[in-house]
Amino acid sequence: LYTDGIIEAQDDMGDEYGVERLCQQVSDLSHLPPQELVDTILEDVTTFTEGMSQIDDITLIALQKR
């Protein structure tokens, strides 16, 4: 689960993080425990938006089926 603040986060060129990048990250990191997956994706968003202030909330929740 995520808020639009993640996919609409922009880099210094005005490009958005996007659904495709988020989906690719989730796919690539699906082997990780939920907290580690969330932390890694949020780090990627932070790196992507480096130096840019974000005006929207950024929330990401991962659940694991047991």
H/E topology pattern: HHH
Strand percentage lies at: under 5%
Alpha-beta classification: mainly alpha
> What is the terminal separation in angstroms?
18 Å
Oligomer: single chain
* Largest beta-sheet details: none
Helix segment tally: 3
How would you describe the shape? elongated
Give the overall pLDDT as a whole number.
95
Cα-atom Rg, whole angstroms? 12 Å
Q: What is the percent of helical residues?
A: 40-55%
Number of strands: 0
Overview of the structural elements:
This protein is mostly helical and 66 residues long. Helices cover 45% and strands 0% of the residues. The protein has three helices and no strands. It has helices at residues 4-7, 19-29, 34-48. The longest helix has 15 residues, at 34-48. It is elongated and about 40 Å long. The two termini are 18 Å apart. The mean pLDDT is 95.
For this entry, give a set of tags.
mainly alpha; 3 helices; elongated
Give the topology:
Elements lengths: L3 H4 L11 H11 L4 H15 L18
Task: Give a quick summary of the entry.
The chain is mostly helical. The protein has three helices and no strands.
